[in-house]
Write a structure and sequence with these properties.
Organism: Chitinivorax tropicus
Family: Belongs to the glycosyltransferase 104 family.
CATH architecture of the largest domain: 3-Layer(aba) Sandwich
CATH superfamily of the largest domain: Glycogen Phosphorylase B
Strand content: 15-25%
CATH class of the largest domain: Alpha Beta
Function: Protein-arginine rhamnosyltransferase that catalyzes the transfer of a single rhamnose to elongation factor P (EF-P) on 'Lys-32', a modification required for EF-P-dependent rescue of polyproline stalled ribosomes.
Low-confidence stretches: none
Distance between the termini: 13 Å
CATH topology of the largest domain: Rossmann fold
Catalytic activity: dTDP-beta-L-rhamnose + L-arginyl-[protein] = N(omega)-(alpha-L-rhamnosyl)-L-arginyl-[protein] + dTDP + H(+)
Keywords: Glycosyltransferase, Transferase
Structural class: alpha/beta
Radius of gyration: 22 Å
Length: about 375
Amino acid sequence: MRRWDLFCTVIDNFGDIGVCWRLARQLQAEQGISVRLWVDDLAVFQRLCPAVATQCDQQQVQGVEIRHWRADFPRLSTIDMPDVVIEAFACDLPQTYVNAMAACRTPPVWLNLEYLSAEDWVSDCHGMASRHPRLPLTKYFFFPGFVANSGGLLFEPSVAAKRAGWDGDRHLHSLGVPAKPIGTLRISLFCYPNPALPALLAHWAQSTQPIQLLVPAGRASEQLANWSGRSCEPGANWQHDALSVSILPFTDQTAYDQLLWSADVNFVRGEDSFVRAQWAQQPFVWHIYPQSDDVHHVKLDAFLDRYLEACPDAEAVSQCWHAWNGRGDMVETWVAFAAALPALRSHGPAWAARLQALGDLAGNLARFVESKL
């Protein structure tokens, strides 16, 4: 059995550890790999996976060995070194660990798993090698992506079958969410703090079509509480004119996937929920992680160029997404987006099929590694 080490630093949200946790489980379950996941913030990790013990430096969860990555990193002998080392999103490995890699008779295959991007340069850089300036080590750059010359996206084969037979109404009823009246549009909301949200909430409250809003506890529910003046604790259900609101507990990844399957439209953010929304195959709106100098708008447009290539009402999607990310009138563009929903429903399955043809990230990564061992 191959042994892999996966290193993850938690920055300020759940995207990094969300991707790493999905990848670690999939490598173990589907590729038969022994995975040791090093994480520097177990408290954030525990919110995604309640089974994680925050005070435990070494533990086994769902078949994956989890190690607390502390500043005083332990010295490992060459016997303890794995076959493969992945540093997620350019996190810096401890120097003592890098030295131990170099001391191995056959050094581990070393990869940097990059952030997801739809930009054209990704296909040129995917799989590139970089020699260490001092040590006998080579690092490879592995890019998730949306094109053939990339690593593809994380995707478990079982997801499609589970989603196809999913009963969203029954699931939400089990969570205490009131039944959705006929003709109601059900929306899930997961976003960063967004100046466009208050106006959109006010519009939904006055909508001619009833809106059922499902909000996992977090930043979005905090902003909702400030706007409404009402309780937005998990379990709260309340009505404001045409807008009914249900606050859900912040949940693990499996339950979040189920929420995406249960909604008619999904507002998502960052990387992990963005990818899962594409597998959910429902219309969605992406709040990309904001970066300095508006670099994120370049990444947003790069994805839209690919996603909307064969999409009906592409202009309505593009304008709504731009408004949600700070460029445009959110209410005006939402009206056009909502009017386009019947046509957009066929786009999700077609787009997911196109992505699935690329192969899943875990499998592509395993095959790439085997070619280097």
